[in-house]
Amino acid sequence: MRRRRALWPYALASIVLFFGLWQGVVSAGLVSNFVLPSPVEVLDRLWTMANRPFAGFLIQEHLASSFLRFFYGFALAAIIGIPVGLAMGRFRLFEEFFTPLFESYRYIAPLAWVPFAALWFGTGIGGPIMVIFTGAFAPCVLNAYRGAQLVDRHLIEAAQTHGAGEFRIAREVLLPGALPSIVAGLRVSAGLGWQSLIGAELIVVSSGIGYVLVVGQQNLSPDIVMASMLVIGLTGLVIDYLLRFAEARVRAKWGAA
Fold first, then answer.
1. How many domains, in total, are found in the chain?
2. What does R_g of the chain's alpha carbons equal in angstroms?
3. Is the pTM of this model over 0.90?
4. Are 168 and 138 in contact, with CB atoms under 8 Å apart?
5. Which of 37, 92, 212, 246 has the maximal Cβ count within 10 Å?
6. Residues 195-223 pLDDT 10s
7. DSSP letter (8 states) at residue 53
8. Residue 250's CATH number
9. Which helix (H) or strand (E) holds 119?
10. 28 vs 33, 42, 117, 226, CA distance in Å?
């Protein structure tokens, strides 16, 4: 913790340097404002969209709509993916059965599912959830599988010796042992899920932060596009920091390296 606090000034300096260079390039006239609006213009536009509806809603309402879709898709991926990964790591037969399907599936880009999402769900909430699920599912499975593989087999054998059933072994041995790897996988899963959401919202929704990007582009308003990108990036950063905090707590509790 002390080391992280000592490094905070460097992180702050990088942010100040980035925005300073951005403002300097625009102020010097090296790039047209139409191509790259200044940070001041972007923040002013963001403030306006926070107080005046754009594309039907305030920017925070668009963000809330996006986050709700993300939460449903991410939660569904975790609820299904983690047990599947644990089962693959625990049972060789299940691993051999599921691996060919899973390996084929995980190399399909999440955005490749957008046409199906649009056909099956239209502009409803189901389409984005489906796309988010396809992006977030694979990391949940992989990290749960790897975590299960790292569990000491002697602990499982000891539990079996004492008469524990498979459900109890999964709950009291497999899941706690694999938990650090699972939480690390959730960070990756959340990042891919959030990116997949924005891609889906570019096509199959009528609200959300990705939809704001589309409308901004259609209106030839680069400040709106940049403001939306800023919100997307900051929201992703917050999600990552929350999961990073959870990962650190899990590793500290369970003694993972």
1. 1
2. 22
3. no
4. no
5. 212
6. 898 888 877 677 889 889 989 888 888 99
7. -
8. 1.10.3720.10
9. helix 114-121
10. 11, 17, 45, 19
